[in-house]
Amino acid sequence: MDIGKNIKDINNSLPENVRLVAVSKTKPNEDILAAYETGHRIFGENKVQDLTKKYEELPKDIEWHFIGHPQTNKVKYIAPFISLIHGVDSIKLLKTINKEAVKNNRIIDVLLQFHIAEESTKFGLSLEEADEILDSAAFKQLENVRVVGVMGMATYTDDKNQIRNEFRVLHSIFNSLKNKYFSGSNTFTEISMGMSGDYPIAVEEGSTLIRVGSKIFGERNY
Questions:
Q1: Any bridge partners for residue 45, and if so which?
Q2: Per-residue b/e over 100-133, b at no fewer than 16 CB within 10 Å?
Q3: How confident is the model at residue 32 (pLDDT cuts 50, 70, 90)?
Q4: Most exposed of 28, 65, 66, 113 (fewest Cβ within 10 Å)?
């Protein structure tokens, strides 16, 4: 596995407005450093314990993204340094992130996660649920958490049309929220969709952040 070549190839294939999150979960520090040596700086983890350990051991100019669904009782461990939390789907979690951001004197950026796939195992909001959160008095009081976009995962299928349609749904949700709640915001800009198997379609459908692991680092280590 030539990690450096893989990450360069993907980065070179992306349009300027699309950023790559190298999904380094389960991977050792030397693999992350091989990607880092190419100039890449954005890495994604989905376990708080692994992430805090890597944050302590690796270069401090890495921009860490939390790409899973953080448990509320663990947000405090990543709040001091996290750049973006991808999987937020409740007002409870938003309140927790805000509380921990206040303690760290930071504003933490998050993405709202939407359920766009057919599989019931994937979690996320519906547009109605997002409206409920964004319209709520509780949300309007959160000054240290900033919603900067949306995130979603397509169904795991070989049907490219289905994948494309699900990504289109997420893009339309983004447009709807932008018009309704964030029209005056220059920070509500991110559509996080697309992984190793389907990111070229996601890019065609307007993704600004793709999350790629196995195409860079090889299959996951368990």
A1: 66
A2: bbbeeeeebbbbbbbbbbeeeebebbeeebbeeb
A3: very high
A4: 28
Indicate the length of the chain as a whole number.
222
CB 155, CB 166: distance < 8 Å: yes
| pLDDT, tens digit (0-9, with 9 covering 90-100), for 47-102 | 999 999 999 999 999 999 999 889 999 999 999 999 999 999 999 999 999 999 99
CA distances from 162 to 153, 191, 193, 208, 212 (A): 12, 18, 14, 20, 20
Task: Region of 206 please: left (phi>0), alpha (psi -120 to 50) or beta.
Answer: left
8 SS3 class: helix
d(CA 4, CA 15): 19
Per-residue confidence at 194, pLDDT binned at 50, 70, 90?
Answer: very high
| CA distance readout (Å), 181 to 137, 185, 186 | 14, 9, 12
Neighbours of 94 (CB within 10 A): 23
Q: Which two tokens stand for residue 210?
A: 């793709």
Q: What are phi and psi of 131, to 5 degrees?
A: -60, -45
Q: Assess contact for 189 and 154: CB atoms under 8 A.
A: no
Separation CA 4–CA 2 (nearest Å): 6
